Amino acid sequence: MSIRKDFKIERTARYYLSNEPSSLQPYLCFVLHGYGQHPEFFLRKFEKAQRSDILFVAPEGLHRFYLQGSSGRVGSSWMTKEDRLNDIDDYCRMLDQVAAMIMEYQRFEKVAIFGFSQGVATACRWANSTKLKFETLINWAGAFPPDLDFEAALENFRPKELHMLCGDDDEFISEERLEEHLNFLKEKGLHPDLHRFEGKHDIYNAPLKALLEEVFPTHPHP
After folding, report:
1. For 10-59, what is each residue's pLDDT tens digit?
2. Is pTM, for the whole model, over 0.85?
3. Where is the Serine hydrolase domain (predicted)?
4. Which of 13, 60, 83, 117 has its CA 20 to 30 A from that of 38?
5. Radius of gyration (Cα) for the chain, nearest Å?
6. Angular region, 43: left φ>0, alpha ψ -120 to 50, beta rest
7. If DSSP codes are grouped into helix, strand and coil, which group holds residue 170?
8. CA 25 to CA 5: how far, in whole Å?
């Protein structure tokens, strides 16, 4: 027989910025990596979009592990099935702290939350619980978690822009699964804009640039 005891600790977490915040960046986008990814390398996918007017912030999931064996490259995860509710609370609280630190720099014209793969569920849960004022939620190659509080989400997400993106050759998302998920969301009252692109389970530059242009229109030159 064993007796479980939970307790809170203080620990160190980290996030990466595309560059130093400045008044030349009216837009802010939090980007949440997928399973086993490193936020520093994940951030490079957004730097290729060549948008100097967007500050990209890539927090790291709190679970680090070796990608192969017991040495070599390290990646991160947001959670596992073990003690999942505490992990969800922990990463939502961590993301709120990251957002609070970033928002101290300046006022942004528009804020978006972007999740990729495993980071989609993280983005949805955080967006549904945070007090951060954001305008857009972007789910790339991932699904709304089925245990999300959809009653609250319907209220929280209704005035927001919701985007879903999925490649036509995604090895983890079949056309049948995508259709089932869209029907599920429709039943819950959510109607995200669906964007399809040619490609697999990855972020491609062309559809990313097109999406960012839609979400964050470039300011005309004076």
Report:
1. 999 999 999 999 988 999 999 999 999 999 999 999 988 878 999 999 99
2. yes
3. 31-203
4. 83
5. 18
6. alpha
7. coil
8. 45
